[in-house]
From TrEMBL:
The active site is at Y193 (proton donor), K264 (proton acceptor). GO terms for cellular component: chloroplast. The chloroplastic ME isoform decarboxylates malate shuttled from neighboring mesophyll cells. The CO(2) released is then refixed by ribulose-bisphosphate carboxylase. This pathway eliminates the photorespiratory loss of CO(2) that occurs in most plants. Signal peptide: none annotated. This is NADP-dependent malic enzyme, chloroplastic. Divalent metal cations. Prefers magnesium or manganese. It comes from Buddleja alternifolia.
Length: 612
């Protein structure tokens, strides 16, 4: 049976060979095990086993005899360890072997984020896994660890410090990281995701400590399959990939965009229950046109201007082919934060050959298309008619018929008959919309006059300021409520704290694709879907809308609280999976009777596992 739930991997089933183990765990070392299992998430032998066996062979040939090892196991006078493999004594021009270390127990176990439990290792585990003395005597529960981490986290005044503390935790103790995130999702989402992740990407070069995710640059052209094989996990189910050209509303951050796939995938796990080992963050580095980064001595990416045209297309094509070759037909690839001059082409090109979607454009101009599709579905009116209910404004003003020739192709369906209107305020006054959605990436474009106009012809104007991070929000929650005199139903891409206006509290919602993609991804995976269809996105939106209670609506909230997100994701996953079966795009047969229960049963739990 297919299961996403945790891993079967137990430390005892994996033999590890490490120099540290030689010294700290076994005073008399037994010969290296004859069979080395490459550590894969399910405990089975992966491709890496071959590499591991080669390393062992090499190690045996180079290793000292057992008598030397016995001598070696005695600490030297100054408390250090003897240089068994000659690494320390080798001069800089001599070659040394980068020994492969797999985790079995002892010190490396404490350094392995996938299995480390810190002070939560119990007495039995401390004995069985050579941890005695490596930890102070106290044994604590995971809940107490969460409590302590949250207390520490709240002491940081600067959001970026919280982000770095969370990233450190992810690198140190993965399950604790996810437990923290799941149990405190409303408080920590703004830390690992928007808005703080935006600042982290801007400063990624300076705060860079441990590499996260896979960096594929033009240097790797012709070798991308090899690069994918360097990634330690073999059973990848979701890839989030960016080329860093449109990071939130912050523009081109080049290679430093990596924070986004890392953050999105942590939400796939925390919010959607996809196993962390099944997630692969990727940044494609084709250069950057950001002069500031090109001149920044700490910039981590290629120091060249962006590749375009054929050079760009070939790299992306090699990547997409390698992904399919390495992980199969059913790996989900989410394109993230590509500039729209590439995003639409990539989606069109790979939509029919790969399991791909783009949560920006399928929720950007895509928002308009999905709303039109949904109205058409609910009313039976033709799509061409329902599109006419939706008007778009770009940097040049209202999108109208007379501009048709000069419009990018994705704007053309929205060019309706109307005289030209140059700015948003005039457009709002001319169209008198009931809902105003901002995804301009340009902060403060919903001015006082615009909000007042919305409030003048709507009892409850719906105002959605989707642009991220907070600095790019079209208006703040306070502005929306104040300028509309408390009438607005407001939600924003990055969260705002509740606002007090005229003695009343207004809590706004977070209109963010994070509600959708984790559940969508889970639904695609549990059904074994081979393509993403627009109807699946609609099914996901409908499932989300059904989670909004009357109480939420009465409080002016058009989104359910994030605190229920795992239940919401299971509902979304079930609806997406059902749609995949209905459309004949599901390959995991037979269809489970109860898709919600099945989705829930597949979700990763961050609770610690017991080790034999
Ligand atoms: N909340 C969420 O879940 C999501 C939020 N976003 C956010 O949306 C923002 C935009 O992303 P994306 O659509 O990919 O960006 P793009 O740059 O592709 O598109 C921005 C659009 O806004 C228009 N625009 C820019 N400035 C103005 C202005 N002053 N007045 C009117 N229109 C303007 C541009 O016009 P022109 O074409 O003429 O240049 C363009 O059509 C980002 O901040 C991103 O973070 C994105 C995805 C999901
Ligand atoms: C939320 C998101 O995907 C964005 O702002 O780009
Ligand atoms: Mg995005």
């Amino acid at each position: 049976m297919f299961s996403l739930n945790g891993s079967n991997f137990m430390n005892n089933s994996v033999y590890g060979v490490s120099k540290t183990l030689t010294h700290s765990a076994h005073r008399k070392i037994s010969p290296p095990p004859l069979v080395a299992a490459a550590v894969s998430s399910n405990g089975k032998q992966g491709d890496g086993a071959v590499l591991m066996e080669n390393t062992l062979k090499e190690m045996r040939e180079n290793a000292p005899t057992s008598s030397v090892i016995e001598k070696d196991s005695i600490s030297t006078v100054d408390g250090g360890v003897e240089d068994v493999y000659g690494e320390d004594s080798a001069t800089e021009d001599q070659y040394i072997t980068p020994w492969t270390v797999t985790v079995a127990s002892g010190y490396p176990l404490l350094r392995d984020p996938h299995h480390n439990k810190g002070l939560a290792f119990n007495e039995k585990e401390r004995d069985a896994h050579f941890l005695r003395g490596l930890l102070p005597p106290v044994v604590v529960s995971q809940d107490l660890q969460v409590k302590k981490m949250m207390r520490n986290m709240r002491q940081y005044q600067v959001p970026l410090q919280r982000y770095m503390a969370m990233m450190d935790l992810q690198e140190r103790n993965e399950r604790l990281f996810y437990k923290l995130l799941i149990d405190n999702v409303e408080e920590l989402l703004p830390v690992v995701y928007t808005p703080t992740v935006g600042e982290a990407c801007q400063k990624y070069g300076s705060i860079f400590r441990q590499p996260q995710g896979l960096f594929i640059s033009l240097k790797e052209k012709g070798r991308i399959l090899e690069v994918l094989k360097n990634w330690p996990e073999k059973k990848i189910q979701v890839i989030v990939v960016t080329d860093g050209e449109r990071i939130l509303g912050l523009g081109d951050l080049g290679c430093q965009g990596m924070g986004i796939p890392v953050g999105k995938l942590s939400l796939y796990t925390a919010l959607g229950g996809i196993r962390p080992s099944a997630c692969l963050p990727v940044t494609i580095d084709v250069g950057t046109n950001n002069e500031q980064l090109l001149n920044d001595e700490f910039y981590i990416g290629l120091r060249r201007r962006r590749a375009t045209g054929q050079e760009y297309a070939e790299l992306l094509d090699e990547f997409m082919s390698a992904v399919k070759q390495n992980y199969g037909e059913k790996v989900l690839v989410q394109f993230e934060d590509f500039a729209n001059h590439n995003a639409f082409d990539l989606l069109a090109k790979y939509g029919s050959t790969h399991l791909v979607f783009n949560d920006d454009i399928q929720a950007g101009t895509g928002i308009a298309e999905l709303i039109a599709l949904e109205i058409s579905k609910q009313t039976g009116a033709p799509l061409e008619e329902t599109r006419k209910k939706i008007w778009l404004v770009d940097s040049k003003g209202l999108i109208v018929r007379s501009r048709l020739e000069s419009l990018q192709h994705f704007k053309k369906p929205w060019a309706h008959e109307h005289e030209p209107v140059k700015n948003l305020l005039d457009a709002v006054n001319a169209i008198k919309p009931t809902v105003l959605i901002g995804s301009s990436g340009a902060g403060r474009t919903f001015t006082k006059e615009v909000v007042e106009a919305m409030a003048s012809f709507n009892e409850k104007p719906v105002i959605l300021a989707l642009s991220n991070p907070t600095s790019q929000s079209e208006c703040t929650a306070e502005e929306a409520y104040k300028w509309s005199e408390g009438q607005a139903v407001f939600a924003s891409g990055s969260p705002f704290s509740p606002i007090e206006y005229n003695g009343k509290f207004y809590a706004s919602g977070q209109a963010n694709n994070a509600y959708i993609f984790p559940g969508l991804g889970l639904g695609l995976i549990i059904s074994g879907a081979i393509r993403v269809h627009d109807d699946m996105l609609l099914a996901a939106s409908e499932a989300l809308a059904e989670q909004v209670s009357q109480e939420n609506l009465d409080n002016g909230l058009i989104y359910p609280p994030f605190s229920n997100i795992r239940k919401i994701s299971a509902q979304i996953a079930a609806r997406v999976a059902a749609k995949a079966y209905e459309l004949g795009l599901a390959t995991r047969l037979p269809q489970p009777d109860n898709l919600v229960a099945y989705a829930e049963s597949c979700m990763y739990s961050p609770n610690y596992r017991n080790y034999r």
